[in-house]
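Lesson 9: reading folded outputs for more than one chain in a single document. The general rule is that every protein is listed as its sequence immediately followed by its structure tokens, and records are never interleaved. Here is the first one.
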Amino acid sequence: MAHRTRSQTRGTAQSQVQRLKIALLSELEIFADLPAEDIDRLLNQSTMAHIPKGRILSPAEMDEVLFILKKGRVQLYRLSSDGKKFVIDVLGPGSVFGECVLTGQRLSGAFVETLEDSVLCVLHRSDLERLILAAPRVGVRLLEILGRRIYELEERLEEMAFKRVPSRLAALLLRLAAREGNPVEGYTHQDLADMIGTYRETVTQTLNEMKQQGLIEVGRKHVRILDVEGLHLLAEQ
């Protein structure tokens, strides 16, 4: 049997990597049931970025770019003029952000921080437009994602305007549990405070009160919901 040349071996390895990338992207909601040739076109138009935990992407780095999170977790946030942090969202694998490139608007002032080692698929606006022209269903799904994101932000703004901290925190824990599972893990008290617009000390006190009421169990970066109905009642107050 003839020995393989280096170029043949390299070509086989590249082909295997390409098939793996296609399989991974096919699992994402936005690309579900797309033909392999469309996903292959996406891979050719995009770049894969491996970003270590703790890296912060500035607003300038997100200009005119769509990100698809393949692996890891990221936090989207804004900073006030006095340096106070407000977390817009925490996203896991399969999430899309920077989708405002579809409307010609920018994520002005928004930062992204990797909470874990992450892999991002990076697609520039011009490439995204070509992809949507070739596969219009991708554009429809991106608009659906954008619509859900706007709705969720409107809900949170309403909570911050009209509800007390215990209600806001209860609603947040329920959302995180619905999305990521119960217990809610990986969030410090400061993280939770940044997500509902309050202070860490206030969150710690409120969590202790919820614990005393038998609603939750609290550990280090760990909150288990014990009484879902009771927490819903609190969230609605």
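And here is the second record, again sequence then tokens.
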Amino acid sequence: MTTQGGPLSAAILRAKRRRILPLVADIKPASPRDGELVGLRDAAELAQMLVEAGACALSVVTEPRSFGGSLRTLRRVCDAVKVPVLRKDFFSSAEQVEESQKQKAAAVLLILATTPDPVAAALYRLARELGLEVVVEIHTRQELERALALSPTIIGINNRDILSLETDSGDVRVTEELAPLVPGGIVKISESSLQTGEDIQRAIEAGADAVLVGTAILKAEDPATFLSRLISGVRV
């Protein structure tokens, strides 16, 4: 089954071949650390602006309690753009994976810090059967070993600790430590705590194929212009 916008990994590699920074723009309504992020802005219009500014893909946080997300926002964003959309949430059930496909997501996030191995394996297998890609998220070397057991196509390296709901300071050094350990052929995304072009450049030079940036873009006075400058300022 062809997903909305095609595979996430393909969009990343396509941008990389064109020597354009593969940036996944994260639409996160709120966060425990930074409060309201989207505010009164229309998520669908925001998504269109970020794609026009150069984002090769989008992600949408749907977790409601701590991050203010919803499935409705996911569907509106998926309907508004033609690039792949990653659904970010704490996945624990088959129903969540199935509803992601119904809302036209191209990929789902599987956070190993919060998911036992048997559940992770079952959800990964189901997602692939439904035509969804899976970003397997890690934060430690131990989680990397667990991730590799799934034979993933994409690994996300979270520079912050999701177990603290990303309220820790975080640092791109996590990507610098872990990205070189990921085998070739697996797409690597550096996530979280990327505030500046310098942070992103460090992640790319460490071996990340793409970056996922949300808070810094959403807090900018002009998110589209800020995103465009990030992309043009980083050597790929």
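What the second record shows: The first strand starts at residue 23 and ends at 27.
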